[in-house]
């Protein structure tokens, strides 16, 4: 089960992962998977509720005010950040 401390630890671990030169397909796939993991972890850390398959031990209830999409940006260092929430379309 997720919680804020575990998600912060995951983000710190991913941020500490060394950047590598992409020399082939496997390196490109590794970079894409790492970026995806960063984006998912940032969005999960930003969502302070449990919703669907996202269960947080420190926030076990669903918050109707958080029925929104979370935008993700990436800075020049490759770190990802949760953006202002975007109203859900449906």
- Gap from first CA to last CA: 27 Å
The largest sheet is: 2 strands, antiparallel
Strand order of the largest sheet: 1-2
Number of helices: 2
**Outline:** elongated
Report the portion of residues in β strands. 15-25%
Break the fold down into its secondary structure elements and pairings:
Elements: H1 4-15, H2 25-46, E1 68-74, E2 80-87
Helix pairs in contact: 1-2
Report on the structure:
- With 90 residues, the chain is α+β, with helices and mostly antiparallel strands.
- It has two helices and two strands; from the N terminus they run H-H-E-E.
- Helix 1 packs antiparallel against helix 2.
- It is elongated and about 45 Å long.
- The two termini are 27 Å apart.
- The model has no long low-confidence stretch (mean pLDDT 89).
Concise account of the structure shown:
The chain is an alpha+beta fold. It has two helices and two strands, in the order ααββ. It is 38% helix and 17% strand.
List keywords for this structure.
2 helices; alpha+beta; single chain; two-stranded antiparallel sheet; 90 residues; Fum_Rdtase/Succ_DH_flav-like_C
């Amino acid at each position: 089960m997720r919680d804020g401390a575990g998600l912060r630890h995951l983000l710190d671990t991913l941020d500490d992962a060394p950047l590598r030169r992409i020399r082939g397909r496997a390196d490109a796939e590794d970079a894409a998977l790492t970026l995806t993991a960063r984006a998912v972890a940032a969005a999960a850390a930003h969502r302070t509720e449990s919703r669907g398959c996202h269960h947080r031990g420190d926030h076990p209830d669903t918050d109707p005010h958080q029925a929104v999409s979370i935008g993700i940006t990436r800075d020049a260092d490759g770190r990802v950040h949760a953006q202002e929430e975007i109203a859900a379309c449906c």
